[in-house]
From TrEMBL:
TM region(s), chain numbering: 44-68, 209-230, 261-283, 303-324, 345-364, 376-394, 430-451, 623-650, 671-694, 706-734
Source taxon at top rank: Bacteria
Signal peptide: none
Keyword Transmembrane helix set for record: yes
Classification of source organism: Bacteria, Bacillati, Actinomycetota, Actinomycetes, Kitasatosporales
Origin species: Streptomyces typhae
Name of protein: FtsX-like permease family protein
Key words, A-Z: Membrane, Transmembrane, Transmembrane helix
Length: 745
């Protein structure tokens, strides 16, 4: 600390913080001492960046809530109001699922009954019979999907007022009079009713699940970055606090000084985050890779909440700066600015006490909360708590171990180990800062993998091989007779059709297949005489036929020759359309033929879609690696900040040894114990804790799977990180030592 700073500090002797003038002077003192302090510029930039990231993270919660609110409001406005008894219906309405590109979407069938029939929100005019209105996402679909002709002639687009989100896939179809008679439609009076929602609202989960993902995958990395930035150059500030304490400055005065050093970068970082959010308030923003479009109208509706979130983020960053400071030990009867071992600060004590509670909650949240949605949120909350408090536990353990290891190092005559363990014992918080980012990185990557694994579980289905799955499709419609010639002529030239059904009830139910002999032969099925049937064991059927739908396991299948027609009494036509020889089937052409010539609500599903996981769930799970990648990027920034701070501290601490030893190798050996060993230990403990935390959600039919290659990669990455940090830390310390000269502190 320079002379001017000491003079200002001495003016605080015995002063009790009170009054605006004194507070302003203390804030200016903090700002001035911060500018000239060790690593002052590095800390300024780190705090600015960390505050911006934390503000954006807090705002992501607000934007997620705003998106949910807007989606629910628009979804409620377009929900049909069913006509009650005695009430005149204005229109007919129904819906069904279709898909393209591995994702499902809703197709709404509508038809007016009166001249004053109300239009759905987002629809400017009634399409003519045989016409369709598409959302922008469907209208811009690849031409190979043939959505421009799949349901009829395209007559326009649905605007944003009728879409849950700008990127929603939705179609309004008005069928021809002939097709209208093939579908069972609801009679409605208008919109804004309380019926079951449709579209994206049927597949989007609870907002609390998104909050939990944001907290674990973005919140933890953002907090790790703030912690790393707050303690950059901590040694110099700790000495300044000790001096102020010796001069008689109270706790409030020291807090004001710390606040003065952090207020400007935190404020600038928060403003930077606000500037980054301006485009989202003006335009619809499409998130890269994930493909979700955030509506600008939703973001503008949350402007007040966004402002509050940025203010809360700034207060949180400043609060962490004030909490992450030591509580210096005052010697009885004397005052000294000589640094001593710091006592446990309030945040450290809180972390040490909360760690076992979080572990127990993570392990037993399912039994305690009934295994429902609350259990999942509680589990993620507990996991986040474990990873947030684990660095303090490691620092506490390193401090206790180092006190015992110091004696062994002294007896062995190992100066490098002795210096490292003495430093750990005096400043265990330095270990926390060093390992925190690595521990959180292990937690974020591990949880992202296990959550993706949980969402990809689909028990009870036999997967059909890729080539076979792409060569067949299931068709379900209300058509009651034989296949119409128009449907057959609209199919791909080589496509063949086999009718599917079942006979009997309960345990006596058996599957039935029927088609002309030439089509049965293409599936390696026998062709019994007309009026006869042949039993075929389920295991002897071609894989495409086995994957064509659930059936009694082990029971024979009855094969008949005859026309393709409904086989199950009281149900419509269920058929398998396939391409001979396992060649690829033109699925869009099959869908177009079914929608235009079978029934208004014909369901066509590729065999791959019917045997794999629910496609929309798979798409929603992409949020996990997307947020995990953002969190990993934040962690890289935090690791760079923490490593820079540690290298500077190590270099300053070891520089005088050059005069005492004359051996530059001692710097590299000390770096092994002071930097490399804690990182390796933290990575090993982090992987072990991850294995413990995933036990409640792994195993069983619906459990996730641990990725052992990922664990091996994280372990190897830990060793590599420790090696690089050791080499760089030793080199920086050796270089600083070569130019070190004594100077007043």
């Amino acid at each position: 600390m320079d002379a001017g700073t000491r003079d200002q500090g001495s003016g605080a002797r015995g002063a009790v913080p009170g009054g605006r003038r004194l507070a302003w002077q203390l804030l200016r003192l903090g700002h001035a001492s911060h500018k000239g302090a060790e690593a002052g510029r590095t800390r300024f930039g780190a705090l600015l960046l960390a505050s911006a990231v934390l503000a954006l993270t807090f705002c992501s919660f607000v934007l997620a809530s705003a998106a949910w609110d807007g989606r629910e409001a628009r979804g409620a406005a377009r929900t049909p109001a069913l006509a009650e008894r005695g009430e005149q219906a204005k229109a007919l309405w129904s819906r069904y699922w279709d898909s393209y590109g591995g994702r499902q979407f809703t197709v709404v069938v509508i038809a007016p009954l009166t001249d004053d029939a109300p239009l759905p929100p987002g629809v400017g005019h009634w399409p003519a019979p045989g016409e369709v209105l598409l959302s922008p996402a469907l209208a811009e679909a690849p031409r190979a999907e043939d959505l421009a002709h799949r349901y009829g002639k395209v007559a326009g687009r649905i605007d944003g007022a009728g879409l849950a989100s700008p990127g929603e896939r939705l179609a309004y179809v008005r069928p021809t009079a002939d097709l209208l008679r093939t579908a069972d439609l609801e009679r409605i009076t208008g919109y804004g009713g309380h019926w079951i929602p449709f579209g994206d609202l049927r597949v989007v989960g609870e907002r609390t699940a998104m909050w939990a993902l944001l907290a674990v995958l973005l919140g933890l990395p953002a907090l790790a970055l703030v912690v790393a930035a707050a303690r950059t150059g901590a040694a110099g500030r700790d000495r300044r606090d000790a001096l102020l304490d010796a001069l008689g400055a109270g706790r409030g005065a020291r807090l004001c000084v710390d606040l003065g050093g952090a207020a400007l970068p935190v404020a600038l970082g928060t403003l930077l985050a606000g500037a980054a959010l301006v485009p989202a308030l003006l335009y619809d923003v499409r998130l890269p890779w994930i493909g979700y479009t955030l509506a600008a109208a939703d973001a503008r509706a949350g402007t007040a909440a966004l402002s509050a979130a940025m203010g809360l983020a700034a207060l949180t960053a400043l609060g962490l700066v004030l909490l992450l400071r030591p509580a210096p030990t005052r010697r009885s009867g004397a005052r000294s600015n000589r640094p001593t071992s710091a006592q446990a600060g309030p945040l450290r004590l809180l972390a040490l006490g909360a760690f076992p509670v979080f572990v127990l909650l993570a392990m037993f949240s399912g039994p305690l909360l009934g295994g429902a949605q609350r259990s999942a949120v509680a589990y993620l909350f507990a996991v986040a708590g474990v990873w947030a408090t684990l660095p303090w536990v490691l620092g506490w353990g390193a401090g206790r171990w180092s006190r015992k290891a110091a004696g062994s190092a002294r007896h062995q005559g190992n100066p490098a180990l002795l210096i490292a363990v003495r430093t750990m014992a005096a400043r265990p918080a330095a270990v926390v800062r060093l390992v925190a980012v690595l521990v959180v990185a292990v937690g974020v990557l591990g949880q992202a993998q296990i959550l993706s694994s949980l969402l990809s579980v689909m028990p009870g289905h036999e997967r059909t091989p890729g080539t076979a799955a792409e060569s067949a499709a299931l068709v379900q419609s209300t058509h009651a007779g034989e296949l119409p010639p128009a449907f057959r002529s609209s199919l791909p030239r080589t496509a063949r059709v086999v009718a599917l059904g079942q006979e009997g009830e309960g345990p006596e139910t058996v599957r039935v297949m029927q088609a002309p002999c030439r089509d049965l032969a293409l599936l390696d099925l026998p062709c019994p005489p007309r009026g006869k049937q042949r039993q075929v064991a389920l295991g002897d059927l071609e894989r495409r036929v086995r994957g064509a739908g659930p059936g009694p396991a082990g029971e024979p299948v009855l094969v008949r020759s005859g026309p393709v027609q409904p086989l199950t009494r009281g149900e419509g036509l269920r058929a398998l359309v396939f391409a001979p020889g396992g060649s690829r089937l033109d699925l869009p052409a099959v869908k177009r033929a079914a929608h235009l010539h079978l029934s208004a609500k014909a369901a066509v599903q590729g065999l791959r879609e019917s045997t794999e996981q629910p496609s929309e769930l798979s798409h929603q799970s992409r949020w996990i690696p997307f947020l995990g990648a953002l969190g990993a990027a934040v962690l890289l920034l935090a690791m760079a900040v923490a490593a820079t701070a540690q290298f500077l501290r190590l270099a300053r601490t070891l520089a005088p040894l050059n005069v005492l030893t004359g051996d530059r190798r001692v710097f590299h050996r000390t770096a092994v114990w002071a930097v490399g060993a804690p990182l390796c230990a933290a990575g090993t403990v982090g992987v072990g804790v991850h294995l413990v935390l995933v036990q409640p959600v792994t195993g069983g039919a619906y459990g996730g799977e641990v990725s052992w290659p990922l664990l091996a990669a994280m372990s190897a990455g830990t060793v590599l990180t420790a090696l690089i940090a050791t080499l760089v830390g030793g080199a920086v310390a050796a270089g600083r030592a070569a130019s070190w000269v004594p100077r007043p502190d």
